[in-house]
C-alpha cells in the first residue's frame, strides 16, 4: 500500500499526528507568564468537563441509592415537599438566564453591564440557598428530620450536597467578579474564560437541581 | 519543515524558597516524589501490621510490640487486618504507581512542562497526606482502629461503638479519611486526564504515547468515575453512624443481645453495591499502571518494539471499561439472583480476553529479543508471572458455584494478594529501579537490586501459593486463630512455613530500602540515558530541570518503542530525533 506508506512518511516528516499546538505548561495559579492562551483555555474547559463528570457520578450514586432504598421494604413514607422549593427552582432557572446575559455583556466588552448582571446572578444564587434553608426549617417545624424516614434522609442529603456544590459556584462567581484580571491576551486565564467556566458550572448546577427536584417530587 | 523543531514555552520560574520548593511545591516532579515517599512510609507501616498478624496466627500467645496488653486479641487482629488492607490499597497501590510515578513522568513523556493544573496537583497531594493522617489517627483513639475490613461492610461498619472496639471513633475516622482521599484522587485524576488530552507536545499523537502514559490515562479515567461513587457511599455511611439514618442498617438487628431499635429498613447490600462499583475499578487502578511500566521496561530491555502496540492500547481500554461491569462478582455469596450472577460471571471471564492479549504481547515482546536481565527487567518479568498466576485463580473465582465455596477462604486472599498486591508492587519496583537514575541522578546498586529480586520473587510465591491449598481445604479467612478447628490442625505447619518465609521476604525489602536510601547519596552518577531508551524522559538531564525541557518543548517524529531499527548504528531511535538526524546516524 504505497498510499499508506507515503502518508506515514509525511507524518514523520511533519512530525505531527497529535496535532496539538505547543503547550505552555499548565496554569491554574497565575504563577508565571503562560505561553499559549489557547492551550490553557482548552485545558480549563477539559478540566471543568471532567470535574462535572465526577460530580455527576457522585449524584448518580446517590440517585441509584435513592431508587434502591425506596424499593426496599415498607418503611418509606413520602414527605410533603415544602412549597418554597418551586420558588427556589424558579430562582435558579432565572439565574441561568441572567448569567448568560452577563456573559454576553462581557464578550461585548460592556463591563459595567456585565458586573450588574453578574451581581444579579450571584444574588439569585444566594436567594436560592436561603430558600433551601427555609425549606429545611419548614420541614423541621413539621417534625421531619434527617433520621425521621429514609425519604427525609435522602431529601436532606441531596439538597445539602447540591447546596454545597452551589456554594462553590457562588464563590467562583465572586472570584470572577472580585479578581483584578490582567488585560493582556497572553495571560494564562482571561476574564472571558473565567466567566465562561463559571457559567458552565452554574448551568450544570441549575440542571442538576432540576433533575434532583424531579427525582424528589416524582420519585416520592 | 524538517529542521529541528523546538518550541519556546514560558514555563513558570523555579521557586527559590525551601518551602515552595520542597513542601508546597507546584512542580509535578517534586509532587511525584512526595507521593512516592508517602507510599514508601505507608508500605512499611502496612507490612509491619501484616507481620504482627502472621506471628499471631502461628504463635497466638506471643508477646508483640505495639499491641495493647502484649498478646493480640481477635479484635486487635481484625483491626490490624483492616488497617493493613486500607493502607495498602489506598496509600500504596493507588498512590505510588499512579500519583507517584505518573506525576513525575507523565508530563515529561508527553513533552509538557508540567501538569495542566499545578496548584490542584499540590492540593491533591496534601489532601492525600491529610487523609493518611486521619486514617492513621484511628490507631490512637479510644477503642482503636476499626475491625470491619478495608471493605467496611455494613451493618458492622454502620452501627457504631456497640459493634465492637474500633467501631466507634476509629471507624468514623476511617470513613472521614476515605472521603478526604476521594477528593484527593478526583483532583489527581482530573489533572492527569486534562494533561494527556491538552498538553501533548507537537507530534505526540495518541498512538505515539508510551504505554505508561496510556496506562496512567486509563487509570485516571477509572479514578474519576469511581471515586465519586465511593464518596457518596462514605457520606451515607457517615450519616448512618452519626445522624441516626438507616441507609445500610436493616430492621431487627440484634447486637450483643440488644435489639437495635433506632435503625430500620436499610440494606447492607446497598453498601456492597456502592462500594464494589468503586472497588472493582479500584483493583484496576492499582494494576494498570504496573501493566504500563511492564510494557515499557520489557520493550527497553528486550531491545525490541512492544509487540502489538495498538492491541496493547485497546486491551488496556478494554480492561478499564469491563472493570465497571463486573462489581457483582464480589457479591456472589450475597444471595443475588442466579441470573445476575451469571451475567457478572460472563463479564468477569471476558476480562480474560484483553488480559490474555496483554500477556501474549508481553511474551511476544520478549520473544527473540536481545534480553538484558537488569533489575527493572527482572521485576517486569516477575510482574508478568504474578499477573498470570494471580489472574488464573480469578477465572475460578468468577464461577458463582465455585465462589460460593471459596469466597470466604484463603483462596481469595491468595488470589488478590498475587494479582493486585504483589504484581502491582512488582510494577512499582520495576519503575523504581528503572527511573531512579532519572529522578535522583544516581543509579541504584545493581547487585543489591538483584539480590532483592531473587529473594522477593520466590518469597511471594512461597507465601501465597500455599494459601490456595488452605483455601481449597476450606480454611476461613479473617480468622485470628485456627486453634478451635480440628480439621485445620494438620495444616498448622503451612502457616508456620508462610510466616517464616514472610519474615525472610520482608527482610529482603529492607535491602531495597537500604539500597534506595544509600543510592540517593552514594549511588553511581547516572548519565542522561543509561538504559539507551527512546522516550522523552531520557532526553533531559538527570534529574530534569524545573520546567523539564528548559523552555524548549520537543517535537516528536515517531512511536515510543523504536528499538533495533534496521540500518541504524545505534539500536534505539529516540522519539524526538528529526529525520535529518536519523539519516546522519545511519
Task: Provide structural commentary.
The complex is a heterodimer of chains A (220) and B (586). Chain A is built from six helices and no strands. Chain A is an all-alpha fold. Chain A has a single domain, classed as Cytochrome c oxidase, subunit III, four-helix bundle (Four Helix Bundle (Hemerythrin (Met), subunit A), Up-down Bundle), CATH 1.20.120.80. Chain A starts with a helix and ends with a helix. Among the domains of chain B are: 21-248, Cytochrome c oxidase-like, subunit I domain (Cytochrome C Oxidase, Chain A), CATH 1.20.210.10; 542-586, no CATH class. Chain B is 61% helix and 2% strand. Chain B is built from 17 helices and six strands. Chain B has a two-stranded antiparallel sheet. In chain B, strand 2 (254-255) and strand 3 (258-259) form a beta hairpin. In chain B, helix 6 packs antiparallel against helix 7 (211-242), helix 12 runs parallel beside helix 15 (446-472) and helix 14 (410-440) runs antiparallel to helix 15 (446-472). The longest helix of chain B is centred in the middle third of the chain and has 35 residues, at 268-302. The interface between A and B is large, with 55 and 73 residues.
